[in-house]
Structures are given as structure tokens and as C-alpha cells.
UniProtKB/TrEMBL annotation:
Role of this protein: Involved in targeting and insertion of nascent membrane proteins into the cytoplasmic membrane. Acts as a receptor for the complex formed by the signal recognition particle (SRP) and the ribosome-nascent chain (RNC).
Span list, region Disordered: 40-61
Organism (species): Isoptericola jiangsuensis
Chemical reaction(s) catalysed: GTP + H2O = GDP + phosphate + H(+)
Cell location: Cell membrane; Cytoplasm
Name recorded for this polypeptide: Signal recognition particle receptor FtsY
Entry keyword annotation includes DNA-binding: no
InterPro entries: AAA+_ATPase (IPR003593), P-loop_NTPase (IPR027417), Signal_recog_particl_SRP54_hlx (IPR013822), SR_rcpt_FtsY (IPR004390), SRP/SRP_N (IPR036225), SRP54_GTPase_dom (IPR000897), SRP54_N_sf (IPR042101)
All residue ranges annotated as the SRP54-type proteins GTP-binding domain in the record: 366-379
EC number assigned by the record: 3.6.5.4
SMART domains assigned: AAA, SRP54, SRP54_N
Length: 393
């Protein structure tokens, strides 16, 4: 075994002193590092990186709206829920009562007098005519009232009111079928949508009525497609599309103004067949330049549409405030369009109301819907009993 001296003298051991120095320095370094690694909040070079914060839960509150990947950050507003159609006419009854209808308060006042002179009956006739009842219906109602008052001799307010209610209801005619043709026809084994065309002159609220009618149908849980076949009025398609978008109803329209209305109507019906919807509503132009032009345009739409599905309903929109002045318009449309029902708009804006009877008598078709105001759900199915009660107040 070699002795220490065999490795050399002390001066030859310089490498050993260097080695010992390194070991001492290393030990001191370790002593300093270990406490730091164990210290609170200390970080070392070999420590793992901090974990990523967990994603918030779906229902966790956040200050930032994050759009789904691949989608626009803007969120579409929620669809509107239309008011149920049932009971809407109750509002009309209240409005007519507040309007001071001459067909109600004035008639009750005269008929309740102790004795009725010829002047009184003349006043009743004038009241009926001012209410736009029309000459024929006014004379008919007057004679019925004279006969019943003379025979029954009623003067008590309650009895007079009931008598007047019965006679007004008779001329309004509750026996008419006022339901909309919404049954879907089956053609060659294929179930088609019910197709409804809406006609009328501009200014009567026709396009707005189509939009409101779509809301009535949506409220009854029916699927709908709108056809913007009024291609001659630049804003008509935009207006109709806005109405439809509020309740999730698509609108078929032309990419340019002045396109063929029949082509747009056909595309709308075809879309309805493809999508298997319940109802297709077609809005048409309201021009009334001449009878021949109107007949050609509406006739073409009818022919083209019926290639795809039967036309179940043609609704004529009339402004109730025009009174007898609108009767000629109604007559023209009735002759050229095969009108099956009438929509009276702005009925709450007139204290008359007799226009309901006059237009039914002129066209031989029932009033099916009435406009009650400017609200989106102010369109109601016409109920004769509620209408007469509204007139009587």
C-alpha cells in the first residue's frame, strides 16, 4: 500500500486543496438553496410552470361576452312572442265604447224616449246613414226597429238595448263563415301549404296587415312563409321582411325592384312546399290605375301560384275610415280578384262602424279580420257579438 509520501510533497498536493475548496463551496450553496426552495412563495428554476387557470363554467359570471368560435360576436335579439288572437276583440269593444259611437249611444237615447215621433225616426235614420251603414241596410234596420217598438211598446233602457242589439246583430249577420281557409290541401298525395293572397290599394295598411296576420298565425303555432310580391313599391319588401324577422318567419323577395310579382309569388309558394310550412301569405301591389291592368296582374299571380298549390283565400284590405268612398275600390277588387274575405283596418279610429255591414252587403263576403290600432298585435278575428256590444257601449 503506498504511503502518503509516495504522492509527493505538500506542495505537490495543490490539486487536492483545489478539490476540497470546490466541495466546501458546493456545500455552502446547497445550504442556501434548500431553505429558499422550502420558503413560502419561493420559485426555483427547476420548479414546474404555474398551471393554467381553469375555464369558467357555463353559468359562471363573466365581464366579457365571448362569441362562439366561427360566429359573429353580435347576438340576434330574441324572437317576439305574439299575443294570442283569442280575446283581442275585447279591446275593440272598449275603444268603440269610448269613441262615442253614434250607432250606439244616440240610438239608445232616441229609442228610450217616452213617445217616438216621425222626427225621432228621421233622427234614427240619419244616425244610421252617418254611421256608414249604407242606404239599404239603414232602411232595413229602421223598419225592423219601428215594427218591434210599435208591437212591443218597449221603453225601458234595458229592453231597448236588448232589442237594438238583436237587430244590429241581425244586419251584421253572425251566420256568415268568418274562419280563414287554413286547412292544407292534398294534391297528388302531397300535402301543400294553405295559400293566402292579400290585395288592396296602397294606403290601406295592406303590407302591415300581412305582417300582423303572420303574427296571428304564429300565435296559433302555425309555420308561415311570406311572399313580397309588391315589387313596385321599394319599401314594401323591406317592411314585410322586418315584420317576419321579428317572429322568425322567412320572407321570399326579389333581388331588384320592379320584378315580376307572379314570379315572386310562385317562389314563395314553392318555398312553402319545400319547407313543408302551414301557410304562405302573399302580399301584392296596391296599384289601382285601371281595372284591366289590375285584372291582368292579379290574374297572372293566381294562375302561376296555382301551378304549385291551390289558392285558398283572397283577403281584401280596406280602410274603415274611408267609409262609402272605399266601396268602389272594394267593388273593383271583388270583381277581379275573387275576394273571399275582408280585413277592415283602422276600425278603432272611426265612431261609425256601419261600414262592416255596408261592405259585406256590397261584396257578399264576410269581414274576417279587423284592425284595432297601431300595435303589432292589434289585428283580431271579427266576432259579430263582441263588435255589436262595443258599438252599444
Amino acid at each position: 500500500m503506498p504511503r502518503l509520501g509516495d504522492w509527493g510533497t505538500v506542495t505537490d498536493f495543490s490539486w487536492l486543496w483545489i478539490l476540497l475548496g470546490v466541495l466546501v463551496v458546493a456545500g455552502a450553496t446547497t445550504a442556501l438553496v434548500v431553505p429558499r426552495r422550502r420558503g413560502r412563495g419561493a420559485t426555483t428554476l427547476d420548479a414546474p410552470p404555474p398551471a393554467a387557470a381553469p375555464a369558467p363554467a357555463d353559468d359562471a359570471p363573466t365581464d366579457v361576452d365571448v362569441a362562439p368560435v366561427g360566429q359573429d360576436a353580435a347576438v340576434a335579439p330574441p324572437l317576439e312572442v305574439p299575443e294570442p288572437a283569442a280575446g283581442r276583440l275585447v279591446r275593440l269593444r272598449d275603444r268603440l265604447a269610448r269613441s262615442g259611437s253614434p250607432l250606439g249611444a244616440r240610438l239608445l237615447s232616441v229609442l228610450s224616449r217616452d213617445t217616438l215621433t216621425e222626427d225621432d225616426w228621421d233622427e234614427i235614420e240619419e244616425t244610421l246613414l252617418l254611421a256608414d251603414l249604407g242606404t239599404g241596410p239603414a232602411e232595413e234596420l229602421l223598419e225592423a226597429l219601428r215594427t218591434r217598438v210599435r208591437v212591443l211598446g218597449v221603453r225601458e233602457p234595458a229592453a231597448v238595448r236588448e232589442l237594438l242589439r238583436e237587430e244590429l246583430l241581425r244586419v251584421v249577420d253572425p251566420t256568415l263563415d268568418r274562419s280563414l281557409a287554413l286547412d292544407r290541401p292534398v294534391v297528388d298525395g302531397v300535402t301543400k301549404p294553405a295559400v293566402m293572397m292579400v290585395v288592396g290599394v296602397n294606403g290601406t295598411g295592406k303590407t302591415t296587415t300581412v305582417g300582423k296576420l303572420a303574427r296571428v298565425l304564429v300565435a296559433e303555432h302555425r309555420s308561415v312563409v311570406l311572399g313580397a310580391a309588391d315589387t313596385f313599391r321599394a319599401a314594401a319588401a323591406d317592411q314585410l321582411e322586418t315584420w317576419g324577422s321579428r317572429v322568425g318567419v322567412p320572407t321570399v323577395r326579389s333581388a331588384k325592384d320592379g320584378a315580376d310579382p307572379a314570379a315572386v309569388a310562385f317562389d314563395a309558394v314553392r318555398r312553402g312546399v319545400t319547407d313543408d310550412v302551414d301557410v304562405v301569405l302573399v302580399d301584392t301591389a296596391g296599384r289601382l290605375q285601371n281595372k284591366a291592368g289590375l285584372m291582368d296582374e292579379l290574374g297572372k299571380i293566381t294562375r302561376v301560384v296555382t301551378r304549385e298549390a291551390p289558392l285558398g283565400e283572397v283577403l281584401l284590405v280596406l280602410d274603415a275610415t274611408t267609409g262609402q268612398n272605399g266601396m268602389q275600390q272594394a267593388k273593383v277588387f271583388g270583381e277581379v280578384a275573387g275576394v273571399t274575405g275582408i280585413v277592415l283596418t283602422k276600425l278603432d279610429g272611426t265612431a261609425k262602424g256601419g261600414i262592416v255591414v255596408a261592405v259585406q252587403r256590397r261584396l257578399g263576403v264576410p269581414v274576417k279580420l279587423v284592425g284595432l290600432g297601431e300595435g303589432p298585435d292589434d289585428l283580431a278575428p271579427f266576432v259579430p257579438e263582441q263588435f255589436v256590444d262595443g258599438i252599444l257601449g
